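Retro notes - structure team

What went well: the batch runner handled both jobs without manual restarts.
What didn't: labels got mixed up in the shared folder, which is why I'm recording both outputs here explicitly, each with its sequence directly above its tokens.

Job 1
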Amino acid sequence: MTLYTFGDSHGGGYPDHGWSKILLDNISISIHWIGPHTCASFGVNKLSILDISKFGVTDGDIVCFSFGEIDVRSVDKVKDNYREFIDAIVLRYFKAIQLNVSQFNGLSIIVQCVTPVAERTDVFDENWPALGTDEERKIYTEYINSQYKTMCSEYRYYFLDYYKEYCNRDGFLDITLSDGHAHISEPKFIKLRLMEILNKI
């Protein structure tokens, strides 16, 4: 059995990312960074952005989708209607996932939460593209995660939710568990929540 991750950099793709450090008994992990795509673009373009059937996925495997952090950084352009905006992109996201999944007969599907917001003072890059204040982006992140959880229940997918474990006391990304930027480096809580899911599969 193989666990495949597909998505933006938070699903892997960086050498120091937490996913690259996770080892599992009897399950190999195959990490696939699709590029800096949003869940919105995946939801619109679907298989032209990601077709998991082209990566060796077979029935019986586990597939984890990881998109959304980049979306959160752009939500502020529609801040007055952010719930409606997020609801729409999440719905399309899950439809794109289902289109991928429908090519198989026996996959276990995981949707990964969006990681806590990295505070601008911790990013160390004044050119890092992020609209809205840190507090606003935190609100958007918590809302998109709530919608992911709801949709996972509807679609009967597993929701990989390690959000709170990686927050500092102010609710932002704990920099001591990160790569010094916006990515999680310490995998212990990802693995903890992942193992809870794997014990149910």
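Job 2
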Amino acid sequence: MTFTELARTAEKQSVDGAAVVYPQGHSAEFVFAVLRGWRDNVVVCPLEPDQAPPPVRVPPAPCCHLKTTQLQPASRARSRSARNSWPRMQRTSWQRWAAAGLAEPGVISLAHSYGFSNLVLPLLLHAYR
């Protein structure tokens, strides 16, 4: 798909008044959900395919993105989330984009902090630069 096709497809649906969008899975729908959240100024919280939405309150602006921890089964600690604003996400994305280059081929989850921050976010941000 081209970036224009991605944008057009994302525009076909709305977030239906949701306060938080939870993109899940390993398909283009993940990216569409992110784009819809951004378009509608809704907080985006990517999740693994089997991960339930975390019990968090909707963070106030300027938060636009929540990163969640995926705790080990033996851990008794509660999962955590990190709030991110647009300037912080852009700054981090540009730094990673400049420094990155995946040395080993493999599968990286789009919802994982590394997968989202290093694959999804830089591609989308560079398209709208």
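One thing worth noting from job 2: The two ends are 18 Å apart (CA to CA).
We'll revisit the folder naming next retro.
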